[in-house]
Amino acid sequence: MRILLVSIATFCWAAWLVSARAAPPGFPISPRPSLVGLVFEDGDGDGIPNGPYDRPLAGMEVRLEAPCADETRLYRATVSDEEGHYQFANVGRGCYRVRALAPVGYRETIPGGQEVQMAWGDGVLQQHVALARPGHVVGVVFQDVNGNGLQEAGEEGIPDISVRLYEDTNGDESLDAGDVLAGSATTEQAEGAFAFLDRLPGRYLLTITLPTGFVATTPDVQAFLLITGEAGGELLYYFGLRPADSSLDAFAPAR
After folding, report:
1. What is the average per-residue pLDDT within 74-101?
2. Are strands 135-143 and 234-243 parallel, antiparallel or unpaired?
3. pLDDT score at 14
4. Backbone angles phi, psi at 10, to 5 degrees
5. Are 159 and 214 in contact (CB under 8 A)?
6. Count of CA atoms in the C-beta half-sphere (13 A) of 153
7. What domains, with CATH codes, occur in the chain?
8. Which residues pair with 30 in a beta bridge?
């Protein structure tokens, strides 16, 4: 009988010790948190899988990496199901990064993955993972001789014009201090063409630097939504220029 009582007491003490180590003091004992989400193609770059340009991605390798530091290690891995869903059950508390390995032709919208903080009592956390196919923004700066804003026959491109691409971070379709420069280019000789290749989907602004003595016949800041994937992938924009003094033909060949 004494041996039985000692065994029961030892078992209870061991169970208490395991429970004490499994949760912080004073915190109710509960299952470890789980992480679930959707792997999807983000065709419009908004990070939310609810638009007509988004679609779930099946068969993607999803990795849960730890810790959240410069040097990471693989904690767990799984594969998204036929509807794009993934799940990591019973995850230990701590800081992690969740990411999907991008197949050929795709890129992570958040390089290195999304940071997730797991804590005791969180239950089920949700974090979607977005991949995207890059698109292109191309265009022409041209001599708008008649000033109608359209490039017509005989209106040639203008070289050496500075063109800049900004991320429209607040989506207000105007260039302001919060917008991030995403790239710059100079128009080519003869054609006046420019290109920004392999850009993630999202809201952008295009702007040019007007040369001295010229005015724009098209908006000198153009806002747009770059949609990629099955719904799109390339946008074409035009900037027209003409002399500020319309009585002068600055594009006429020198005599």
Report:
1. 95
2. parallel
3. 38
4. -65, -45
5. no
6. 0
7. 31-132 (2.60.40.10), 135-243 (2.60.40.10)
8. none
